[in-house]
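Subject: sequence -> structure tokens, single chain

Hey, anyone have a minute? Need the predicted structure for the following. Not urgent.
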Amino acid sequence: MRPKPEGRAISRPARKGDRVVGSKMRFPLLVFLVSFAGLGLSLQAGIYIRGALRSLDEDGRRDLSVIQGATLTLLGIIIGFTFSMAVGRYDQRKNYEAEEANAIGTEYLRLDVLPATDAVASKRLLRGYLDQRISFYEVRDRDRVEQINRDTALTQNELWSTVTKSAAGLSPATSNFVLGGLNDALNSQGYTQAAWLNRIPTAAWLLMESVALFGCILIGMGAHKTKPPGLLFLPLVISTAFFLIADLDSPRRGMIRVRPENLLSLAGSLSTR
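Reply:
Had a minute. Here:
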């Protein structure tokens, strides 16, 4: 067991770099609209290029078809790989929420070994800490989240200080029993924080969008009509895939969010005790 030193905050407000990198990807609807507009313009650009090149001979059309197929196949692989990354990160956030609720609930029971007065004070702090963790999952405003992180750090320090002083008069085995559980509860918050900051790299987004743009240009070059509205289904489908990936990868802005169901259930059970 490696206890958390007094005065050290596990959580931290998001750094400025966290805001800048992939800021557009935090808004799934914006990703959809920008992607659809960009891919649609790429399609029209391909049609314009085809018109400038006049007509392709049979060999040129066959070569273009091969390049189109290879590009769209590569795009499908990249989208599938990126979607898998987004799902994995979403599952990780869900798992850490469950682990955090389990660690807090376990420590709440372990506090009973402390002297009665200290146990009551420690449990009160732990319940307040639990409320802060629930707020972390439910709040969307970034400034509010940073305030919650600062309050959480203060509560962690106060909780650790209170339990450490109370456990000083206990036997080493009992002290380690209580402090070990508290250490797990506080560390689980750090793991959750890291999971929420773990996003799909910007380079992966740039690669995926670049291949999609080139793919739409090639489709436009191979179109048989000057204004093929049916070809807009391809940008629509690709943009929808981008939207779903961005939604899974946006813990606060997306529609698919991790609800603190286990933490809420724990808070309900503790309120009856």
